[in-house]
Amino acid sequence: MYRRILYDDSDDDEDIIAMQRRPRVFYERVNYCELYDDHDFINRFRISKATFSTVLRLIENEISPPSQRNRAILAPCKLYMMLRYFATGSFLLAISDFVGVSESSACRYIHQTCRAIAKQKQKFMSFPMNDVDTKRVVTGFYSRSRFPRVIGAIDCTHIKIQSPGGDNGEIFRNRKGFFSINVQCICNPWLKITNIVARWPGSCHDQTIFDNSLIKHKFETGLIKGYLLGDGGYEVNPYLMTPLLSPRTQSEQLYNESHIRTRNVIERCFGVLKRRFPVLSKGITVNLSNIQAIIVACAVMHNICIDMHDDIPNDLCEDNYDGNVREENFFDLPGNTRGRQERDRVIRDHFANLQ
Questions:
Q1: Three-state DSSP class for residue 228
Q2: In which element (H, E) is residue 270 found?
Q3: Which is more confident, 19 or 286?
Q4: I need a surface site. Which of 9, 196, 212, 240 has the fewest CB within 10 A?
């Protein structure tokens, strides 16, 4: 029960003290699926019980302990920890007390579960792969404000983090003055994320992230056909339509109005994502090497919730979707000649006929 601790207090002698070892404490681990009804479960974990069971089946083999000896932490408990962390953005000590494990275990298994879910990205996050799915997406966008051939809306959002420190810490400080990861997302008309890039520091411009992304290469080579809608922070391209800075004709005004209304889905997507999982808006305070998995796991969980038709928690039913203050990009980057010509053609052949 006691251990002897030696320490050198002076150059002449050593003192020996006895210190009582802290006893091991085993906390109760609650099955929250049995404790709460679906309404209370959603309020605490931000997903329904059905979605919880679906996610658990996907990752159970990867996060389950090799045995159940010595009060091993089972897969449901690990998933509870991760979801509670996403739902609160709280300190790991509070998460560990909620689930009944040590703080070090909470840290270790939250990151393990995040990585397991992030690996499911290809299954739940992709562009339409055939003509039927593509037509459905294009029709969904067109029904919003009659913008033709739209396959996705693109934008970036800043996810607040703590200062990484070191020689390169300042490159994570964005133009608003806080440290962040600048995350690029593309979404469809139903707010599902179809592509995500979550590795660039906050000081990087949206256009830089897009220029270095695989998705741009796929549009350049014709693997994906259709238009992306972006704000004025992007250069206009034959496959990326941006708003006009100073529309002069009625058809140009119709183009801008349709563009803004159609592209609004990406703003709503960011808002619902951050409000469903507040850790993304309150700030992530873990090591930089673990942040990307947390962001991607939240995006995957967001898509699964949409697929499962989860009810949106009551605090999400507001018009102001995005929790972070945004500065709209009203400037118009020049782009290339082919991009401007394609934009002019869309205005002339489509929007001029809608007057």
A1: strand
A2: helix 250-276
A3: 286
A4: 9
